[in-house]
Amino acid sequence: MNRLIIISNRVSAPTDSKSGAQGGLAVALAAALREYRGLWFGWSGETTDVFSGHINFQRAHGVTTATVDLEEQDVDEYYNGFANRTLWPLFHYRIDLAEYARDFAGGYKRVNERFADTVRPLIEPDDVIWIQDYHMFPLGGELRDRGCKNRIGFFLHIPWPPRRLLNTLPEAGELVATLFAYDVIGFHIEEWLESFCDFAVKDLGAERVAPDVLKLGARTVRVVANPIGIDTQEFVAAANSPPARLSYRRMRDSAVGRDMIVGVDRLDYSKGLEERFLGYEQFLKDHPEERKEVFLLQIAPPSRGAVESYQKIRATLEGLSGRINGGYADVDWVPIRYVNQGYPRDVLAGIYRAARIGLVTPLRDGMNLVAKEYVAAQDPEDPGVLILSRFAGAAAQLGEGALLVNPYSAEEMSDAILRALRMPRDERQARWRRMMDNVEQQDVIWWRKRFTDLLMGDVEVSAEA
């Protein structure tokens, strides 16, 4: 078996599988690495006065990590700058929030070069390299420039924007051309894949020689739609664990007979939290008879606090939740419980199970694993209802069982909440079963195996630099 090297922006030593400290990508990558002999390389999350390229190796829970520290300027320009103030908003269709600065682009290129210089000596001839996400678009090309002839794959965990939006990025063509250094490129859904191919063909002059193969000059790349899943068996076990049962009982006791709606999201403008609050407010306005029969629990841990747009959304949500609670609360009922902290995954599993409705309404999302976790946590005999944005990647898989909504429409969200609350048990069971079948069959192991089989397999893809 080839050794697998995974490279991503942030790396933290894997924790116990029930820990809430790791996001969906971290949990997925740790699960993938446990299947292989290899390592996970990237930024430690720490800073240093002068970049030295010193690698800190650790091994925990079956995964070896290799991390480097970055300089403050690197973090400001590469991470807070180009990655999170330029690429993230643009790729989530928010060109109004995207900031373009040459310093950002320069820092992004510099850090990818530093990553390539540092990891290259660790790569053995038979290793297979799997690079993750938008922080590292050019890393494959940098490794090729340093003589790396290995099979290299890239997976994008966020949406790929339409070409007209992408063309607002200065030197977009140069950035996209770097992706032809890879042998395989993965996207969550066909929509993102087709948007990439559209740009490559129309703006770069690439040739689509097969539905899943693009050729640009001497380089040929395979593209695949490969939706990520969760570790379903592990999450179902977590949902039945003692901490989850305790969490479930605490939530049911605190609900005092009311139906709970739950949202769990990073504090990010792409998650549609403001629109969600407005949709819930519309529901309270439209259905006064339901007001004291339901409440919304919104868990929103802060993220990227150094970026101004994230500071603004936190202030907006605090004001909006205060306004709604002030306008509708009674002495024995508060319509929104708004919590700015994270919880361990087993505790979240209990919260999910206690919720009659899972409200997952991003404005744009590459996948959204919270939707799948909510489904996996449900009691098969009495499952809740998933209300899901049609603009989340998960809608392509769970759309037959979820209630799909346009998150920009407060009235549509209000209608979906009422329908979910009044949905009979047999319909809830049937919808849940359709979603659970997908969550079980296309889990994180399926995702990993499908991509790595293609990357390591017999498919002939040009490896010329």
Structure write-up:
With 465 residues, this protein is an alpha/beta fold. The protein folds into two domains: 4-229 and 445-456, 3-Layer(aba) Sandwich (Rossmann fold), CATH 3.40.50; 232-441, Rossmann fold. 44% of the residues lie in helices and 19% in strands. The chain is built from 17 helices and 16 strands. The protein has helices at residues 24-33, 72-91, 102-119, 139-145, 163-166, 172-177, 190-204, 232-239, 242-255, 273-286, 308-328, 345-354, 369-377, 395-398, 410-422, 425-441, 444-456; strands at residues 4-10, 38-48, 56-60, 63-71, 128-132, 151-155, 184-187, 207-210, 213-216, 219-225, 259-264, 294-299, 336-339, 357-360, 385-389, 403-405. Strands 3-4-2-1-5-6-7-10-9-8 form a ten-stranded mixed beta sheet, sandwiched between helices. A six-stranded parallel beta sheet has the order 13-12-11-14-15-16, sandwiched between helices. α3 (102-119) packs across α4, α8 packs across α12 and α10 runs parallel beside α11. The longest helix has 21 residues, at 308-328. The protein starts with a strand and ends in a 9-residue tail after the last helix. 48% of the residues are buried.
